[in-house]
Every structure is written in structure tokens, then in C-alpha cells.
Amino acid sequence: MNGFWKNWKALGLVGSIFVSGLLGGCAKQGDGSIEIVNVSYDPTRELYEAYNPLFEKFYKEKTGQDVVVTQSHGGSGKQALEVANGLPADVVTLALEGDVDVVAKAGLIDPGYVDEFEGKSSPYTSAIVFLVRAGNPKKIRDWNDLTRQDVAVVTPNPKTSGGAMWNYLAAWRYFEKQGASEEEVKASIKTLYKNVVALDSGARGATTSFVENGQGDVLIAWENEAFLSLREYPGKYEIVIPSVSILCQPTVAVVDAVARKHGTEEVAKEYLQNLYSPEAQRLIVENFYRPADPETYALFVNENPGDAITVIPEDGKWINDKVERVDIEHFGGWEAARKKHFVDGGVFDSIYER
Questions:
Q1: Nearest-CA neighbor of 80 among 64, 101, 59, 61?
Q2: Is residue 72 classed as helix, strand or coil in its secondary structure?
Q3: pLDDT digits (tens, 9 = 90+) for 151-164
Q4: Structure pTM?
């Protein structure tokens, strides 16, 4: 798929414009099929392109009803605000629980959504890794290397990107784990972001800046996004797994107020529940996410996986990297993490010099 990364922004823009003009409260198309809209974040584009036909077939066989799924992609934080402000999503599949909370606090998602589906409504997880150019010319091994004066960093903006929040928090945990005081951690994070040469609004934009535009020496990336780059550009990049990562838990939810208005509650819930099916979980693995289903997971894990693992695209297996993957509860949960680090006037604003 030559030119794939180059074209994503144009495609995403068209998709967003198209979705913004959809529905107007009507869930049925002229041919009688039901239409639902899934508002998601950038790196899930390929996953849902594969999943939607699978679900449409499943739902037709189960109910006899045709369903068409329309996608919208962008930075997760930005997408959450769009839905909260009126983008008509029947479901959201965002980068983190904190972004779904934005939609819930707008009165569009009923309380308790985190417990509606298995695994805290997270049908797949991921991790944060580094993508470097082949041969790793700057010898980047861990987060401290990203503070060196000779290293240029690419990462999305945590004010608009959920993946960027995961990146930031993983870095924070690394410096914290070195025994640094909070002020010392802030200083290290400030130095890291001083080295950022491209702060795109979303993860896919950051990938484009790195792999297509040649910016930077290292991309801080979703694990699946890094492996997609390896697949698209064999021999040009390699992945470095830092000693500290984070358990990234993308979160899904029915946008209850919209689904009720459209009469799509049943199909919207089925759409998300079916992500846990064996067929969908296999697609999740094929798109380099980590499946939630233990049986599917076991098919792709070595006998001794340890506490943290990462996928190997050549053989579809996972390997043990013995990496710490801290979870969001270490930071007090998403509400506390957002309030401290990412709101206007938070820690990120205090350390990032625009």
C-alpha cells in the first residue's frame, strides 16, 4: 500500500466531513439498512476496516437486517470533544477511558459504561514503544536517551491525542522509577519535550511526520502503529522496547443518547460486544493489538510470557520483554491524571514550551 501514510490525512478529513453531515436523527438509509457511526481514534483505522464487514455479515445472519457502519477517525481527545459537541456517534471506540468520560460528562453516555463490556470495556490493549530508523543510528535504548541533545523526538500532542497521554505518562513513570523527585521528573519531561520536533494532533499524524516526512530520530508510538510501519516499510525501521511502558486500555461505549434517538441501541451494543468474539479477536491480533480474550491471547503467547509482551509480526507470536507496564491506577485513574497533567494550566502546560 504505497503512499498509505501520505494519504491518511486527506482520507480522514473527508471521513470527518462526511460523518458530520450524516443522520440528522435518522438511522435508516433509503435501502432499508440500518446505519451506525463509530467515532474512533487514528490508529484503529485498519482494524475497523477489517472488522466492519465481519460485523455486518454477522448481524445480517443473526437478524436478517442489513447494517452499514461508517467510520470517523482523528486524535482521540479531539474526537471525544467532537462527539460531546454534536458529532452523531452511535458508538465511540476511543484511546482511553478518560476520553470516553468527556462524552459521558456531556450527558450522552449512561453511567456505568466501563462495566458494560468485559475487561473494563476494553476489547484490546496495547503498549508504548519507540520506532527508530534501521540500525538505530542514535543508539536509542530507553526514555533517558530521549533527553539527549542529539536526539529529535516525534510524538503527538497530549492536549488532542489519547495516545500522546499514554506516551507522556509512560515517560513520567520511567523517570519516577529512577528515584527522581517530582520536580526532577518534571525537569526530565521538560527536556524530553524540548527535543520534540513534531507535535501532531494525533498518533497517525505523528507516524506520517516520522516515516513519510523524515522528521526526528525516534517516534514514541502505539505498539500496533509501530508494527504497521514495519509492515509498510520493511527494512527501513525497527522497534525499541523501553524498560518502562504502560498498559494502554482503549475504551468502547455505546453513545446512549444518540443511539436512543436513532433507534440503534441494539445494533450498537452488538457491534461492541462482537469485538470479543473469537473472529474479531483474531483480527485484533492481526492488526497488532493485544486481544482481551484469554484463549485467543494464549494462541499467540510463548509458554513463559512474563509480565509484559509484544507482538512479532513475522510469525504472529508474542515474546517476553520483561517490561514494566504500569496502569492508569498508578496515576490515580484518568480523572486524577487528566486534572493534574493535561487540563489547561496542568503540568504539561507548565513544562511544554510552544
A1: 101
A2: strand
A3: 999 999 999 999 99
A4: 0.85
